[in-house]
Design brief:
The chain has one domain. It has 22 helices and no strands. It has helices at about 1-15, 20-35, 40-50, 60-70, 75-85, 90-105, 110-130, 135-145, 155-165, 165-175, 175-195, 205-230, 235-255, 260-295, 295-310, 310-325, 330-350, 355-365, 375-385, 390-395, 400-410, 415-425. α6 (about 90-105) runs parallel beside α8 (about 135-145), α7 (about 110-130) packs parallel to α19 and α14 packs across α17. The longest helix is centred in the middle third of the chain and has 35 residues, at about 260-295. The radius of gyration is 22 Å and the shape is globular.
Length: about 425
């Protein structure tokens, strides 16, 4: 059964069939090849049951909130504020690029939303200022990976769904790694800027800073409201997503006056289409995961990792390598849904905190968004910039170095992830 499932999935994926359909076809092949007498109706039950979870409601809501903010012009105000704050440093717009991604991460929770929303604004601004297009594309792509790490995070919601780990603790666990990713990318920008003599802006006056802060104040309050509400227990992460949508509509219609009924309806339709795709992937991934568990392969994988060493850190490094390779080929949502039920029992036996592992796993898979052949962010930024795919890959690769350093530190020192959740919970 396992051979039919694995070979079937790779075969249909390589010929260009979308991931959701590939998973469904592979799972069906595995189901048919088994000698089980389980009725076909169980397939539908397993797929539909996977969607019956309150946490999943947050996914379309965060997607909707990000789209509303992009359309309402909130992203422009965020980038302008970031430029005011760090534009005086060498290569100022590159630093603003990374800093703006950190701020926007507190609203969207998705790398693709970041690169699609902020990407065009950042590329245009950097082109006008005389930055190399390759450098602009690279920092824009790399900084977009901050979104799924810094809360709120859609991949962490999916991990919580698959593993049963607290969403609130996962969100708080991503704050320090998200800040470290931002700082590391800004160091990389500084190195490029000094070497290539990129421009910088004068240090902002108090009046200019105050004006920029005033213009961006309402958008900047979004992550404060969301994280504050979750931490105090005023609302759940799913309810926080609904608050983000309401807040975005409020700002976009009454304050910025960029949204009207027609625009909002169009955004709802786009969100529904995107949510349907994600929902389809979740159902087929859950079906494949169930098939894999029936084969017993999950137990063998667990035993294989446990047999590597009794040293938790060595096993975690090995899992990192496994996830990094997998992230080059497989969608992060699929990887999380299928692998979390397999790997979480392994790390728990080794005494590794599931919150620590969850952040490390998501960080691993987000780096896969920047690696060929199936790095989604690479394709999005290539479409926006009109550069060749080979050029995008070549320019982006050096920016993986600081991100890998953050991954190594986050893996090696659990306190980077666990300090804040343990302090606040």
């Amino acid at each position: 059964m396992i051979y039919f499932l694995t070979i079937g999935f790779m075969a249909v994926l390589l010929i260009g069939i979308p991931v959701a359909f590939s998973l469904g076809i592979a799972g069906l092949l595995g189901f048919i090849s088994s000698s089980s007498s389980v009725a076909f109706s169980v397939i539908a039950q397993k797929m539909m049951t996977s969607l019956n979870n309150f946490i999943l409601l947050a996914v379309p809501l965060f997607i909707l909130a990000a789209k509303l903010m992009n359309t309402a012009g909130i992203t422009k105000k965020i980038f302008s504020f970031a430029d005011t704050c760090v534009g005086f440093m060498p290569g100022g717009l590159g630093h603003a690029n990374a800093f703006a991604s950190l701020i926007f991460a507190g609203m969207s929770g998705a790398a693709v939303a970041d690169v699609a929303g902020l990407g065009q604004i950042e590329l245009d601004a950097m082109a006008d200022a005389g930055y190399d297009k390759g450098f602009s594309v690279a920092i824009t792509a790399a900084s977009s990976t901050i979104g799924p790490i810094f809360p709120p995070s859609i991949p962490m919601l999916v991990f919580a769904l698959a593993s049963g780990v607290s969403v609130g603790r996962l969100f708080l666990g991503g704050i320090v790694p998200g800040v470290l990713m931002t700082v590391s990318l800004m160091v990389m920008v500084w190195i490029y800027a000094v070497k290539r003599k990129y421009p910088r802006k004068p240090f902002p006056t108090l009046k200019l800073f105050a004006q920029s802060l005033y213009n961006a104040l309402l958008p900047l309050l979004t992550p404060v409201i969301l994280l504050g509400g979750i931490w105090t227990g005023f609302f759940t992460p799913t309810e926080a997503a609904a608050v983000a949508v309401f807040y975005a509509i409020l700002i976009g219609t009454l304050v910025l006056k960029e949204l009207n009924l027609k625009i909002i309806v169009d955004i709802f339709i786009d969100t529904a289409k995107e949510t349907a795709i994600i929902g389809f992937i979740i159902t087929t991934a859950a079906f494949c995961g169930w098939i894999l568990m029936r084969t017993g392969i999950t137990i063998r994988i667990s035993q294989a990792f446990l047999s590597i060493s009794a040293n938790p850190l060595l096993v975690l490094y090995t899992i990192n390598i496994f996830l990094l390779i997998l992230g080059c080929f497989l969608d992060s949502t699929v990887s999380i849904l299928i692998l979390s039920p397999i790997l979480v029992p392994v790390i728990e036996q080794l005494g590794i905190d599931p919150v620590h592992f969850g952040v490390v796993m998501v960080l691993n898979l987000m780096l896969g968004l920047l690696t060929p052949p199936f790095g989604v962010v690479l394709f999005v930024i290539q479409h926006i910039s009109k550069l060749s795919f080979a050029k995008v890959v070549k320019e982006t690769m050096p920016f993986l170095v600081p991100l890998f350093i953050v991954l190594f530190l986050t893996t090696t020192f659990p306190g980077i992830v666990l300090w804040l959740p343990n302090l606040l919970y």
